[in-house]
Amino acid sequence: MRKHWVVATVLTIGASALLTVFFLRVPLVPAQASKEGRQIDYLLTLQFIIGGAIFALVLVFLLYSVVVFRRRPGDMEDGPPIEGSRALEMVWTVVPLVIVLSLAAYGSVALRDMIGAPPGPELVVKVEARQFGWRFEYPQYGFTSPMLRLPVDQPVLLRITSRDVVHSFWVPEFRTKQDALPGRETRLRITPTLVGDYMVQCAELCGLAHWAMKAPVSVVTADDFQRWVTAQRR
Amino acid sequence: MDDKRAMKTFLMLGVVRGLIVGLAGAALGMALTMLVRATLGYAAWDAEQATLVGSLVGVIAYLVGLGTFNAWVAWILGRPTPEPGEHHAKGWTRYFGVDTNHKVIGVQYMVTSLVVMAVAGVYQLIDRLETAQPGLQFLSAGTYNSLMSLHGIMMLGGVLLGISGLMNYLIPLMIGAKDMAFPRLNAFSYWITVPSVLLLLFALPAGGFDTGWTAYPPLSVQAALGMQFMLLAFYLVGWSSILGGVNFITTILKMRAPGMSLFRMPIFIWAALATAFLQLLFTQFVGTAFLFVLFERVLGLGYFAPERGGNVLLFQHLFWFYSHPAVYIFVLPGLGAISEILPVFCRKPLFGYRAVALSSVGIALGGSIVWGHHMFAAGIEEVLRIPFMVTTLLVAVPTGIKIFSWLATMWQGKIHLQTPMLFALTAIAAFLVGGLTGVPNGIVPTDLYITDTYWVVAHFHHTLFGGFVFPAMAAIYFWFPKVTGRFLSEKLGKVHWALMTVGFFVTYLPMFWLGMNGMRRRVADYDASAGLGTMNLVVTIGGYLIGLAMLLFFINLVVSARRGARATENPWRSRTLEWQISSPPPEENFSGVPQVLAPPYGYGTPGSVHAVLAPAGDEGRRKG
């Protein structure tokens, strides 16, 4: 039996290594354009690697059993009457417990960093969602715009409301998202880190044209942003 | 002459009588509403109110016409009431009317479930054709949304019917009882689901609805008339679920054969017990939530509308307070079925029986305090997200115990690779991916990224295929010989398995990638420029492979029920009680009272038996 354990363990390690390389090397997510996204991508990759290892462990042992412990033709005997093992059962209770609690602890810390107020001043944008479009108000500058334009590396506080049903603010490159609720305000903090053009899309089913509820988002340099603000106020 | 007799048989079927009386009742309900409105000086026709009262009266009339209440009415009037099962229709007709035998009800549930899920599957196959390429090709956004929403709610209804089917058929047989504790209530629980299904089918011609199965207000308050049919239908299915829960719990706790202590129960019974408690305790919350939406639509009350002092998040809390435990209602019986099938086909005891048994209870307890993870992005109190993250992740532990115990059961076994076992293996793989991809949904920061995208769609389809669909397939191939006395075709079964396994992963694995790359849930269309077209085409092809596999399955069911190879009492050499009696089982299951002597999975121990059947008439030693 020891031989089977050794072979299956080696195969598991090999398969996890392959999956780890896959998750580290193959780009699975779109461009990352916010500080919050950095945390999220890191956490996601970590979970991919851990999940990949568990996946490899289960699948290798499952397929190994199917191949090696397959019944020989004509063999109608029963297998050995093994009913359980305290030690093994403790291991597969305690190890997953430790893994998930660590992940939860790490997740909590990452969440704290994402939602906490930054030390410096924030750019405030009031986001109003409606069936089926977006409107952005810049209260510090006193104008509204049909598109969202943000200066790069400037912490932003989005104060989000809805005029009708539940919507959700999501720019895939920023990663994080927040629902827009009628009758109350929700908040989302984002620090854009990559200059470029993106799209905010409603992520909560809001009716017939839900799929078309989008608005352009662009992250620009601080100078470009100032020029845009001046043009808007004129 | 023969035509006349056939006509008479047809008209005497409970389901036909119910339909006729039900339609009359619906017309009466609508007429009454119009009369009352006209008398009060309003316009006589109000579609919402007329159809709501019409459907309610129609459902009650349907049940009356069917004869669901006959025994209870006779009892109230002081007339002699026959014992349940004393008179029953002969042959195939008994499946189309009120019958109190748990095996008949089990088959009724299962067939209804398969029909409902087939319809729901076809709905989504139509939608998948639309989303195979960017651009709106042949569906309007309205039709797309209605089909997608109905796909969701009908699949979930179908799963609820399916687990009721499995539990109804198997619980009394596995614990050595003659029937369920409350056979008439059991028949009622089944028959109330039939008009509910009809109401769901009405939702589409009544204008459909565009809210998805989650029916979040305010959208569900604005939605078309079809919404109302869906809300009412699911409310009524809830009755079935709650009453079924009462029946299962009582049967399991009070009617086990002597000698069957809790830790000698088959694992399926443990899973059924945990499921039944969840059904009994949590269904009321979704019922309340849906009822409130109905009230808001029909009577203008303001539970959720902020302009009338309501709170939109209240609905989401009530809804998920049921709908998360509901996931465990859906998957626990399936996981129980896997635990039954593995020892038989590996010829080894279930590894760590006690831990596996208690893990069902652990999942049920843990799963009832995690609902907030559906609302991480919804705008709940920020600090509340942490405890919900922790409880959610803790559920991974008992789930892991199940998976590892299954692996250890296979290790060193003598594995027979027949169709039930093959489906059990695919189920484990699918459920594993479902569980692992649920972790990023449980961790708040990563959930904020992938929630409301195709990632979530992929995650819960892995969970539900792994926890219900594949185990149900395994269960049907496994217990079909017991139910019908004939085997399903093994050849066709293996083709079905291979096609479905490939189709499943081709459909759902690409969805994880799609979700991360900006494909939102429930969209009728997406940008051609986003580069999502290829993967969407792959998903559609996979979906049609699953459809083809299911077609083969239905052919197998119909052909094998008539021409399949005959099955003996115990063709798989299982130890549990249902296999110790003839196939199909006698009307009252066991002629005497079985004696349970040992745990159910003592494979490999020569001379050990789980239970012996007592000779007929040995009623004296019955427990309790």
Detailed description of the structure:
The complex is a heterodimer of chains A (234) and B (624). By secondary structure, chain A is an alpha+beta fold. Chain A has 2 domains: 2-69 and 92-115; 123-233, Immunoglobulin-like, CATH 2.60.40. Chain A has 4 helices and 10 strands; from the N terminus they run αααββββββββββα. In chain A, strands 3-2-1-5-8 form a 5-stranded mixed beta sheet, with no helix packed on it. A 5-stranded mixed beta sheet of chain A has the order 4-10-9-6-7. Chain A is elongated and about 85 Å long. The termini of chain A are far apart. The mean pLDDT of chain A is 95. In chain B, strands 1-2 form a two-stranded antiparallel sheet. In chain B, α5 runs antiparallel to α21, α12 runs antiparallel to α16 (419-436) and α20 (490-516) packs antiparallel against α21 (533-563). At the A-B interface, α2, α3, β7 and β9 of A face α6, α12, α13, α14 and α15 of B.
CATH superfamily of the largest domain in chain A: Cupredoxins -  blue copper proteins
What's the rounded overall pLDDT mean of chain B?
93
Please identify the oligomeric state.
heterodimer
Q: What are the segments of chain B in which pLDDT stays under 50 over at least 5 consecutive residues?
A: 618-624
Shape of chain A: elongated
Q: Percent helix among the residues of chain A?
A: 40-55%
Structural class of chain A: alpha+beta
SSE arrangement:
The complex is a heterodimer of chains A (234) and B (624).
Chain A: H1 2-25, H2 35-68, H3 86-115, E1 123-130, E2 133-138, E3 143-145, E4 148-151, E5 156-162, E6 167-170, E7 177-180, E8 186-190, E9 196-202, E10 214-220, H4 222-233
Parallel strand pairs in A: 1-5, 4-10
Antiparallel strand pairs in A: 1-2, 2-3, 5-8, 6-7, 6-9, 9-10
Chain B: H1 2-12, H2 14-39, H3 47-66, H4 70-76, H5 102-131, H6 141-175, H7 183-191, H8 193-203, H9 219-222, H10 226-254, H11 267-298, H12 312-346, H13 353-367, H14 385-394, H15 396-410, H16 419-436, H17 439-442, H18 444-450, H19 454-484, H20 490-516, H21 533-563, E1 595-596, E2 611-612
Antiparallel strand pairs in B: 1-2
Helix pairs in contact in B: 2-3, 5-6, 5-7, 5-21, 6-8, 6-10, 6-12, 6-19, 7-10, 8-10, 10-11, 11-12, 11-13, 12-13, 12-15, 12-16, 12-19, 13-15, 16-19, 16-20, 19-20, 20-21
